């Protein structure tokens, strides 16, 4: 089995680093949600306060990451933004009713920037359904983390170009799968492929 450190070297070789002075943060346009869902005046007031609070927090995280200089740690920033969206959803559930919350969570999911990786739910599904050993699962996690880092490190190269971003995503995804294939038994890898077959690059709207 290849060492986990070796996996990161494979991805590091593939990544290209460059600077991009024109990087700008783009958040979710919540005004669009309010055109799709009927809110009472009180709901609207609370909705605006909550979304502004979390957009401000997200912007603070972004500015802090930029202020670090050099290559921005987009993995750490993505984790923080995931946590903020989860906290925002908890607060919003106190304002919206169940059907509205379902629409809100769907809207945020479709319009927010997500970490470009297998999420935790999918990882647990891979582990359970492919019946991976602990060692196999460690490699899947390491390859998944290396994929995310490589794709984020190349961000300034493909920034603003969905076609180029797709090329990078597919290149690093192929490396991720190759690393995983070397660690899993043929039967386990076949099941893994079946589970992730619909995971594809999603460009920003």
Give your account of this protein's structure.
This protein is mainly alpha-helical and 205 residues long. The longest helix is centred in the first third of the chain and has 27 residues, at 41-67. The termini are far apart. It contains 10 helices and no strands. The protein has helices at residues 4-14, 30-36, 41-67, 74-92, 98-111, 120-129, 134-153, 155-158, 162-183, 186-196. The protein is globular, with a radius of gyration of 19 Å. The model is unreliable at 16-24 (pLDDT under 50). The protein is 71% helix and 0% strand.
Could you give a quick summary of the protein structure above?
This protein is mostly helical.
Topology overview:
Blueprint: H1 4-14, H2 30-36, H3 41-67, H4 74-92, H5 98-111, H6 120-129, H7 134-153, H8 155-158, H9 162-183, H10 186-196
- N/C terminus separation: 40 Å
The fraction of residues in strands falls at under 5%
Helix count equals: 10
Quaternary structure of the protein: single chain
Distinctive features:
205 residues, 10 helices
